[in-house]
Amino acid sequence: MEFAWLEDWPERRKRIEAWWSGDAIDRAAICVSVRVKPAPEVAAPDTLEERWTDIDYFVKRIQAGEGVYYGGEAIPHVFPNLGPGIIAAYLGSSIHFEHSTCWFEHIVDDWDGFELKFDQNNRWWKHTKAMTAAAVEAGKGKCFVSHSDIGGPTDLLSHLRGPDKLCMDLLERPESVVRAREAITKMWFEVYNELHGIVNAEMEGSCSWMGIWHPGKTYPLQCDFSCMISPKLFEKYVLPELAAQAKYLDRTIYHLDGPGATRHLDALLATPEIDGIQWVPGAGEKPAVHWLPLLKKVQKAGKLLLCSASVSDARILLEELSPRGLILSVGGAQSREEVDDLIEYAGKAASDGSSR
Question: What predicted TM-score, i.e. pTM, was given to this entire model?
Answer without folding.
Answer: 0.96
